[in-house]
Design goal:
This protein has 255 residues and is of the alpha/beta class. It contains ten helices and ten strands. β9, α8 and β10 form a beta-alpha-beta unit. α6 (114-131) packs parallel to α10. It folds into two domains: 5-130, Rossmann fold, CATH 3.40.50; 140-254, Rossmann fold (3-Layer(aba) Sandwich).
Length: 255
């Protein structure tokens, strides 16, 4: 049976396209943006949190791709009632993307070229993983900001924090958020004493689109830190973007 795939995970949507499966996509979220040309005619079914289940069911997917961190448990439970195969993903660090690629390749192994494309992606990713290690680098306290009003950052067990840890950039606060929920993305009131320890502030381009006008505000938050705008897609999207994200991260460390 030819698969009809609904992806509710932007990073995995991009991965599926990289595996040659874009023609099999029958639904995506509004945040599934890449690759734009390949997704142009794929219907949108809402966001990652608010999915239009009626529209999704009418599109009759045989497989629905979800993520523990990005999609709500209630949505996943409703999807299972459709009769489609629900494929659950949960990469928590760049090293987990090797298994994610293998998972997608195994799920859609009957489609021509998928196994070969997955192998090529894996080889490229493993090379970047080997090249991106703490080595002799000193630990650097980092604040990675994803939102303002309130300021929000990332817990240490998120993909972003674990990516940064590969070059010994240690995110603050030193907390873990658990498998899902708001604790994975803690908010700040600006008065936390550990802010004085931060030496690098990274202002992400997403989900909040930080710009140069916010640099001064972040500098006031962490007066002893260097503040930089960074590409949030390269540092938070996993899948085919992980290898490029690791190269990008090494460039940030070197400059």
């Amino acid at each position: 049976m030819t698969p009809r795939i609904a992806s509710l995970v932007p990073s995995v949507t991009e991965l599926l396209a990289a595996l040659g499966l874009a023609p099999r996509l029958v639904a995506r979220t509004g945040y599934c943006l890449h690759p734009a040309e390949a997704l142009l005619n794929v219907p949108k079914v809402g966001g990652t949190k608010e999915v239009n289940l009626d529209k999704l069911q009418r599109l009759a997917p045989t497989h629905v791709i979800v993520n523990i961190d990005e999609n709500r448990l209630a949505t996943v439970e409703a999807l299972r009632a459709f009769g489609a195969e629900v494929v659950v993903t949960h990469p928590c660090g760049p090293e987990d993307v090797v298994a994610l690629i293998a998972q997608m390749a195994a799920t859609f192994s009957s489609e021509p070229g998928v196994i070969e494309r997955a192998a090529a992606l894996t080889v490229a990713l493993e090379a970047e993983l080997r090249a991106t290690v703490p080595g002799g680098r000193s630990a650097v306290p980092v604040l990675y900001l994803i939102w303002r009003q309130p300021w929000m950052t990332v817990a240490r067990d998120t993909y972003i924090a674990r990516l940064l840890a590969r070059v010994n950039w240690r995110t603050l606060p030193s907390v873990e958020g658990g498998e899902r929920g708001a604790a994975r993305y803690p908010s700040l009131d600006g008065g936390e004493p550990w802010l004085a320890e931060v030496r690098e502030v990274l202002l992400s381009s997403e989900p909040y689109a930080f710009t140069a006008e916010h640099v001064g505000q972040a500098q006031a938050l962490c007066p002893r830190a260097r503040v930089r705008l960074v590409d949030g897609e390269l540092l938070s999207w996993y899948g085919p973007r992980t290898a490029a994200g690791l190269r990008y991260l090494r460039g940030l460390v070197e400059h």
